[in-house]
Specification:
Protein name: Signal transduction histidine kinase internal region domain-containing protein
Strand order of the largest sheet: 2-4-5-7-6
Number of strands: 8
Domain Signal transduction histidine kinase internal region: 468-544
Radius of gyration: 32 Å
Largest sheet: 5 strands, mixed
GO molecular function: phosphorelay sensor kinase activity
Transmembrane segments: 433-453
Distance between the termini: 70 Å
Keywords: Coiled coil, Membrane, TPR repeat, Transmembrane, Transmembrane helix
Length: 669
């Protein structure tokens, strides 16, 4: 300690007007010692903060530059347990930088810490992206940067994270590819782990769980016994747990998160502790261990402060509301759910809000508050597929407004075609006599085509008019209201929770099925939702006699942009269920649905491990599945003709498996 005092005494008497590079060069060895101390994850966050406090209080010096560097080091640690104090230190350094605008490196170091707080704590992705982008632009003009602060890499990884948060996945992927080229896995181990984690995250976001699991398993394996990169280990564990949960591996998800929680507590990373506890709580809800879930929820609220970690606090309220609902303490449940709903409305997260409203809807039904339940249920339905639903409403409005215009355009087109025929005949009459017979034959053929085309147009117009008339007379929400009334009756007669959930699923499936009758085409996302709702209702009917998995290599945005014939897979799914040989209370049955793009065609594959009797594709007599598949084939052929693109439908019966393949053209909305 005496040596440290001598050191600070020395620098206090040797301060003159110096450039920033001279300051950094002068104290580079000292700064490297601090860097090594921070990178040593065996030392707790609190110990590092105390160390920096002791440095700031143990000497008197006019070297304000060094003081502000230490404040930034301190802020980098405080952000993990006390973001408010971290921001105070950053604000103090900002004032110093404003008085010394030539200290560019200090400003960039400050930006890297401030942007991370905006991203991790405040969830302000726009602001973090702006700060990181500004830093990267300045780095391009500044050649001599102190390597210990790692500003360049922190900014590149930060901008990737911000882009992902802003759902600019393609831009993030470009940054990631460039970073992967720049790093060496042997010498830049931490950077390599980051690439693994983010690559796994992007694959997971695109629902490509097989690739995502591969990346995260590799990251966890590399870091499990490595004590220097616990933050990266925690991130990999959280993401791997998410994949396990999405693929119905709840036990594996809990196991990996329990390990991660132990590591997070070792370094006292409050943000990670709260995140992991929330995730574990909801997993225990799935396992019906409601008391364990309650323990996690109360622990989170005890740790989280009123003005910090707001998202974790809101999720804890949602967790406790769910746990108390299942424990039968409806008063407590409603209290916590209301607090979560209030936050999620302002936070503008439709998914979290919808999940919370769903529990409150069940609570109202359970407590026989049916009018309140109907209001909540209507709001939930209104939120489902909000993006697609909004587009559908807009399309319907445009269709209704443009109907008369379309009719007039068709009449004009027909008049033009008739005029072209007359002109053609006049031209033919002017030809030489030797071509008269040939011209007459051509006129007859062409006239026949026009007649057939005109007849087809009239038929389509009549069908369109009937369809629009039906839409104007029928209200799909009638079905939903009927099922809400049914749910109320089920509660009155003390039916179990699963049956109530079943009516909720079939209500949503019915709504989608009705929508499919109103339009010839819809988005691939709507088709996927209809598949999920249908299979859930059938799982209940067959008492979990089969399992289903939906996988994809498509991006989420592609699901919203690609349109296909509405409910095109329904007949194949019904065929798989009704003739698949599945037995009640048996988990032997498996149905796999996969979406991918091959050779510029959308491929939808449905596999089921059928053990029943094979059904010939050509079978017609009073066989509903066969007729359904035949109609499906006709619809695909018509879809192919309309868009003048190849499309096909294959029904393949193997020894212990049936495979149905839909090859469709990629048509964008």
């Amino acid at each position: 300690m005496k040596k440290l005092f001598h050191f600070f005494f020395f620098i206090s008497i040797s301060i003159w007007s110096q450039s920033e590079n001279e300051f950094i060069k002068k104290y580079s060895s000292y700064l490297k010692i601090i860097d090594q101390k921070i990178k040593n994850e065996k030392i707790s966050v609190e110990s590092n903060i105390q160390y920096f406090d002791s440095l700031l209080n143990s000497f008197q010096t006019k070297d304000y530059y060094l003081k502000n560097v230490i404040k930034l080091y301190k802020a980098s640690q405080e952000r993990r347990i006390n973001p408010k104090k971290a921001q105070q230190n950053i604000d103090e350094v900002s004032l110093y930088i404003a008085q010394n605008p030539t200290f560019i490196q200090l400003e960039l170091f400050k930006n890297s810490i401030e942007a991370r707080i905006e991203f991790e704590i405040n969830q302000n992705c726009e602001k973090s992206y702006k700060i990181y982008d500004e830093t990267i632009n300045k780095l391009a003009k500044y050649k001599q940067i102190f390597s210990g602060w790692n500003i360049s890499l922190e900014s590149k990884t930060g901008i990737i994270n911000s882009l992902l948060c802003l759902q600019k996945d393609q831009e993030a992927l470009e940054y990631l590819k460039q970073l992967e080229k720049e790093i060496d896995p042997k010498t830049q181990f931490k950077e390599y782990v980051y690439v693994l984690n983010v690559s796994g995250y992007i694959h997971t976001k695109f629902l490509n769980y097989v690739e995502g699991e591969k990346y995260f398993k590799k990251a966890v394996s590399l870091l499990e016994n490595n004590k220097n990169y616990l933050n990266n280990y925690l991130a990999a564990c959280n993401n791997l747990a998410h994949i396990y949960k999405s693929t119905n591996k709840t036990t594996e998800s809990i196991q990996i998160l329990e390990k991660a929680l132990i590591k997070a507590k070792q370094i006292n990373d409050i943000n990670s502790i709260l995140l992991i506890q929330n995730n574990l709580g909801f997993l225990y809800i799935e396992q019906q261990n409601y008391l364990k879930a309650e323990q996690f929820g109360l622990s989170i609220l005890k740790i989280a402060k009123e003005k910090e970690f707001k998202i974790h606090k809101a999720n804890a309220n949602r967790l406790l509301g769910t746990a108390y609902y299942n424990l039968g303490d409806y008063k407590k449940s409603e209290k916590y759910l209301d607090e979560a709903i209030a936050f999620f409305r302002n936070f503008k997260n439709p998914e979290l809000l919808r999940n919370t409203l769903d529990i409150k809807n069940k609570l109202f039904i359970k407590t026989e508050k049916f009018e309140a339940a109907a209001i909540i249920n209507a709001e939930i339905i209104g939120m489902l597929d909000s993006v697609n639903l909004s587009k559908n409403v807009q399309n319907l409005q445009r269709e209704l407004v443009a109907f008369e215009t379309e009719k007039k355009n068709n009449e004009i087109t027909i008049l033009k075609q008739n005029e072209e025929i007359i002109n053609f005949k006049m031209q033919q009459q002017q030809q030489q006599i030797q071509f008269l017979v040939l011209c007459l034959i051509l006129i007859l053929i062409f006239g026949g085509i026009i007649f057939w085309y005109q007849k087809k147009i009239n038929k389509i117009k009549n069908f369109s008019l009937r369809s629009k008339l039906t839409r104007s007379q029928f209200n799909p929400h009638y079905i939903n209201n009927a099922f809400t009334a049914l749910q109320a009756e089920l509660v009155n007669y003390n039916f179990n929770e699963h049956l109530i959930d079943f009516t909720s699923n079939i209500s949503r499936f019915s709504r989608l099925l009705l929508e499919s009758t109103f339009k010839d085409e819809w988005t691939l996302f709507e088709e996927k939702q209809m598949i999920e709702n249908y299979l859930k209702t059938q799982q209940y009917r067959l008492q979990n006699g089969f399992q289903f998995h939906i996988t994809s290599t498509l991006k989420l945005e592609e699901f919203h942009k690609i349109k296909i014939p509405s409910a095109i897979t329904q007949a194949a799914l019904e065929n798989a269920i009704e003739h698949g040989g599945f037995k009640s209370d048996s988990n032997d049955g498996i149905i796999n649905i996969h979406f991918t793009i091959i050779n510029n065609q959308l491929l939808i594959t449905i596999n089921n491990n059928i053990i029943g009797e094979p059904i010939p594709f050509s079978k017609k007599l009073n066989n509903e599945p066969s007729r359904g598949l035949d109609i499906t084939k006709q619809r695909i052929n018509l879809h192919s003709k309309i868009y003048k693109s190849l499309a096909s439908f294959n029904f393949i019966h193997l020894k212990n498996e049936v495979k149905v393949e839909f090859y469709l053209p990629i048509i964008s909305i």
